[in-house]
Amino acid sequence: MQRLIPVLNSDHVPLHLISVINTLLTAAKEISHRLHQGSLAGTLGSTLDENIQGETQKKLDIVSNQLIKNMLLETNLVHAVASEEEDDVVMGNPDAKYLVAFDPLDGSSNIDINGSVGTIFTILEKPDHAAEGKELFLQTGDEQIAAGYILYGPSTMLVMTTGKGVRAYTLDHTVGEFLLTVEKLEIPKTTQEFAINMSNQRFWAEPMKHYIADLLSGSEGPRAKNFNMRWNAAMVSDVHRVLTRSGIFMYPADCKNSDKPCKLRLLYEANPMSFLVEQAGGRSSTGYERIMSLQPTDIHQRVSVIMGSKEEVDECLGYYKKIPCTRFDSP
Ligand code: AHG
Ligand code: MN
Ligand code: MN
Predict the structure, then answer these.
(1) For the CA atoms of 59, 60, 66, 68, what is the dihedral angle to 10 degrees?
(2) Which pTM does this prediction carry?
(3) 191 lines ligand 1 (CB under 6 A)
(4) Which CATH number fits domain 4-182: 3.90.79.10, 1.10.240.10, 3.40.50.300, 3.30.540.10?
(5) Is the CB of residue 121 less than 8 Å from the CB of residue 148?
(6) Which of 50, 60, 251 has most ligand 1 atoms within 8 Å of CB, for mutation?
(7) Cβ(149) to ligand 1 under 6 A?
(8) Which atom of ligand 1 is nearest to the CA of 238?
(9) CATH 3.30.540.10 spans which residues of the chain?
(10) pLDDT of 222-262, one tens digit each?
(11) Is 193-329 a CATH 3.40.190.80 domain?
């Protein structure tokens, strides 16, 4: 039935990597505890600060960031960390080989409404070529050696991959451990459910406008079937739904704010989620290119995201092939 943590039993996963992952999980248990305490922990609400991306930081964004960063650096197994809430990379042990990038609290606008949030992480190795600072992290998604998320929902779950499929674990508070609850997550190839922030509709490029219009026209439209829509405003819980029961999740480029044509970050949101989605048999693209093939140029770089059930993502990408993009270049 249920088995104690994952990677401890996995072949081919080096012990030091297991220790790094277990450290992330120790931080996640503490974050889970604080989230479940809610107002009782005195950590709801915003700070007066903004992160480097101009977003107001929630108190729990900061707390989660500190917990994960400090615990990882204390292991001496981590060469450097990069976080949504850190302007620059933070260096650890010069002799260590692991690099960890993370979004300490994803969907943090949900904190104060007692909605689901998550932590996203990805682990890379120090590159062979000489690199320092942020250059260390400018690796394609294909170079990830492990990635996953912790979903803080009605139950706290870990979903992760080391490149050999996707497993899911549920935090058992009675023993304080993540127990294996799904041996192999696989995304159904087809779906009748999509996730997108519809309020951005007028700012999308033409291919996305046409694709969504065809989904909305349902059984009377060219797709000849009805579609349902869901949006939790936290990528972790939206993608978790896709991994669990199928779907297509999109945060495409838009022209709402010309300084910020895309919302989601490549390094610690799009790449780890793409790794999971592909390992579960799904597809992940910007609309024009496979996300995990992109060569990053900055640790906080943003990217257009379309991911989920393979055949549905392919349907969507068909619109990018056939409809000229008049308002943007390829994002
Ligand atoms: P974060 O809280 O880490 O900044 O990420 C929020 C992201 C992502 O989780 C979610 O899919 C999206 O922002 C929600 O955006 P909207 O506010 O446009 O719904
Ligand atoms: Mn996020
Ligand atoms: Mn975040």
Answers:
(1) -170
(2) 0.95
(3) no
(4) 3.30.540.10
(5) yes
(6) 251
(7) no
(8) 11
(9) 4-182
(10) 999 999 999 999 999 999 999 999 999 999 999 988 888 89
(11) yes
